[in-house]
Specification:
The chain is mainly alpha-helical. The chain is built from ten helices and two strands.
């Protein structure tokens, strides 16, 4: 998946002008979240959300997103759950001087539940990283098996094509 580097904080490719990493449209199609896509594309959340008011943009986005397979988006979500950064939200919740307004701008993708507890505190529950890793492994193994089968099919097709071309040149083969 092309976006893993960006989510891991690999900003070198952005500096080099990698179109996918600087492109809000492509980032949105992978992440399905305009605020995160805007942040990674170097835009503000407001700029990202505002783009959806433009009809031309929406038509372009539909075309761009059609190239992103849903299975890839699901795998990307699992990757984000397994390896995503939770420091921002933890810092906001643990800061005794915080009025918790930072929660509204924090990346909450890995958060499964937020609730206020008695005494004014806040409880934050995160998705299970272990389960996300297990699902990613399942997907990886399935993709590996599918890739091996496809590779074998291509090799066999190539071999048959080569034999057919040799037969077409007049060479005979024992039957």
């Amino acid at each position: 998946m092309q976006l893993f580097g960006v989510l891991r904080g690999d900003y070198e490719s952005r500096k080099k002008g990698d179109e996918m990493n600087n492109n809000f449209d492509g980032l949105f199609c992978w992440l399905r979240n305009p605020i995160e896509a805007a942040r990674l594309a170097g835009k503000t959340a407001t700029e990202g959300i505002k783009k959806f008011t433009d009809k031309k943009f929406n038509l372009k986005l539909k075309k761009v997103c059609s190239a992103v397979d849903l299975k890839d988006s699901v795998a990307m979500g699992l990757y984000r759950l397994a390896f995503g950064d939770v420091n921002e939200i933890v810092k906001t919740v643990l800061d005794e001087n915080s009025d918790l307004s930072g929660i509204m701008t924090a990346n909450l993708f890995n958060v499964s539940e937020v609730k206020r507890v008695k005494g004014g505190g806040v409880e934050v529950k995160f998705f299970d990283r272990q389960k996300a890793l297990e699902k990613l492994l399942e997907i990886s193994e399935k993709n590996s098996q599918e890739n091996k089968a496809e590779s074998l099919r291509l090799q066999m097709t190539k071999a048959v094509s080569e034999i057919d071309s040799e037969i077409g040149k007049g060479e005979e083969y024992d039957k």
